[in-house]
C-alpha cells in the first residue's frame, strides 16, 4: 500500500527521496531505534481512512528491502522522521546523555513540576540575547527547533520548554553538537515558568508555538492541558507587537479549544484576517505547517492519515 505523497510538503523530502531509495532500509532502519523511544503515542482521533487497528495500516512494516515493492512500502513513522530531519545529521548514539528511553507522559500537575524553573543568565545560554526569540512550548525531542535554529543563526534565538528531562538533556547535547549558539532547551513546566522566562528575556518575543500538545482526553484531566487562560494571558503580555502564535493539534477537540482561547483575545488576529492569501481551509485551519518542516507528532499523525488543525495568530500593532 502506498503512502500518499501529498504528505511530503517539505521540499527537502521530495528532493531527498529518489536519492535514498537504494539505501533506504540500511540507513533509516539503523536510525529507527532511537526514534522509537520518543514517538509520542496517543490514538489518532480523526483518520481520513478507516482501517482495522493492526491489520490494515497505511504503512507496511517490512524487514528486508527486497520484500518491499516500492520505497513507499518501507516508510514508517520513525523512518519518516529520520528522513525529514536527515540534514541535521544528529548523532544516533548519545553516550553523554545515557539511555534515552523516556516516559511517554508526565503529569504537569505533579508536585515536582509545580516549582518554576530558574531563569537562566540569558547571556550564558545565547550568544546574542538581544535577538528576537521563538519559544516552543512542549518541544518534545527538540528536532523541530534545532532545524529552525540551524537556518536562522544570527537572526533569531530559540528556546524549547519541555517537562521530560531526558529529552531536554539530549536536545541540549544536540544543540552543542551542531554548534548552535542560538538554541537552548529547558526542563520547565510552561504553566509555572513561561511568565518569568519570557518577561526576563532581554530581546523581543516574536513567536510562541504550541504544537500537538498532550491531549489529556479525559474530562477530569483537561486541567493538565498546557494551554490554560493564564498561559494565554502571559503569552499575550510578553509577545511583541506583530509577534505570532502558532498552534496545532491532530486532535480536533484540542485544536478547537486552543482556537477558542486565542479567538477570544481581541488583540490576537487570525492570520487569515491579516493575509487572506494565507492557505486556509474554509474553517480557517492552515493547510500546511508554515514553518517549513513538520513536528514529529505531526509527521506521525499525517502518516496515519489524520488531519492536523493549525492556526496562526498575530498580535495587533
Ligand atoms: C505530544 S508531545 C508533542 C511534541 C512536539 N511539539 C511535536 O509536535 O512533536 C507534547 C509534549 O509536550 C510536553 N509537555 C506537556 N505539558 C507540558 C508543560 N506544561 N510544559 C512543557 N512541556 C509540556 C510533553 O512532555 C510532550 O513532550
UniProtKB/TrEMBL annotation:
<dbReference type="InterPro" id="IPR029063">
    <property type="entry name" value="SAM-dependent_MTases_sf"/>
</dbReference>
<keyword id="KW-0949">S-adenosyl-L-methionine</keyword>
<keyword id="KW-0489">Methyltransferase</keyword>
<keyword id="KW-0819">tRNA processing</keyword>
<dbReference type="GO" id="GO:0043527">
    <property type="term" value="C:tRNA methyltransferase complex"/>
</dbReference>
<dbReference type="InterPro" id="IPR003358">
    <property type="entry name" value="tRNA_(Gua-N-7)_MeTrfase_Trmb"/>
</dbReference>
<keyword id="KW-0808">Transferase</keyword>
<dbReference type="Pfam" id="PF02390">
    <property type="entry name" value="Methyltransf_4"/>
</dbReference>
<protein>
    <recommendedName>
        <fullName>tRNA (guanine(46)-N(7))-methyltransferase</fullName>
        <ecNumber>2.1.1.33</ecNumber>
    </recommendedName>
</protein>
<dbReference type="GO" id="GO:0008176">
    <property type="term" value="F:tRNA (guanine(46)-N7)-methyltransferase activity"/>
</dbReference>
Amino acid at each position: 500500500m502506498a503512502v500518499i505523497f501529498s504528505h511530503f510538503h517539505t521540499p527537502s523530502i521530495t528532493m531527498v527521496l529518489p536519492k535514498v531509495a537504494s539505501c533506504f532500509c540500511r540507513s533509516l532502519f539503523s536510525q529507527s531505534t532511537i526514534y522509537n523511544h520518543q514517538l509520542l503515542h496517543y490514538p489518532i482521533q480523526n483518520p481520513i481512512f478507516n482501517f482495522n487497528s493492526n491489520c490494515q495500516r497505511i504503512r507496511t512494516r517490512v524487514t528486508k528491502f527486497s520484500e518491499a515493492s516500492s520505497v513507499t512500502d518501507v516508510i514508517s513513522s520513525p523512518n519518516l522522521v529520520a528522513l525529514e530531519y536527515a540534514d541535521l545529521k544528529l548523532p544516533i548514539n548519545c553516550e553523554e546523555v545515557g539511555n534515552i528511553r523516556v516516559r511517554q507522559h508526565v503529569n504537569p500537575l505533579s508536585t515536582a513540576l509545580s516549582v518554576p524553573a530558574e531563569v537562566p543568565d540569558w547571556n550564558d545560554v545565547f550568544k546574542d540575547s538581544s535577538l528576537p526569540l521563538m519559544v516552543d512550548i512542549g518541544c518534545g525531542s527538540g528536532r523541530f527547533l534545532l532545524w529552525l535554529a540551524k537556518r536562522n543563526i544570527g537572526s533569531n534565538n530559540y528556546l524549547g520548554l519541555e517537562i521530560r528531562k531526558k529529552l531536554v538533556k539530549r536536545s541540549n547535547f544536540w544543540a552543542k553538537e551542531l554548534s548552535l549558539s542560538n538554541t537552548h532547551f529547558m526542563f520547565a513546566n510552561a504553566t509555572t515558568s513561561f511568565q518569568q522566562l519570557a518577561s526576563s528575556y532581554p530581546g523581543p518575543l516574536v513567536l510562541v508555538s504550541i504544537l500537538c500538545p498532550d491531549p489529556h482526553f479525559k474530562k477530569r484531566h483537561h486541567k493538565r492541558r498546557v494551554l490554560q487562560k493564564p498561559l494565554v494571558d502571559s503569552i499575550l503580555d510578553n509577545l511583541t507587537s506583530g509577534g505570532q502564535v502558532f498552534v496545532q493539534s491532530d486532535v480536533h477537540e484540542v485544536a478547537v479549544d486552543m482556537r477558542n482561547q486565542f479567538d477570544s483575545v481581541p488583540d490576537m488576529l487570525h492570520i487569515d484576517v491579516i493575509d487572506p492569501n494565507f492557505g486556509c481551509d474554509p474553517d480557517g485551519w492552515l493547510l500546511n505547517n508554515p514553518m517549513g518542516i513538520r513536528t514529529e507528532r505531526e509527521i506521525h499523525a499525517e502518516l496515519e492519515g489524520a488531519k492536523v488543525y493549525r492556526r496562526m495568530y498575530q498580535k495587533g500593532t
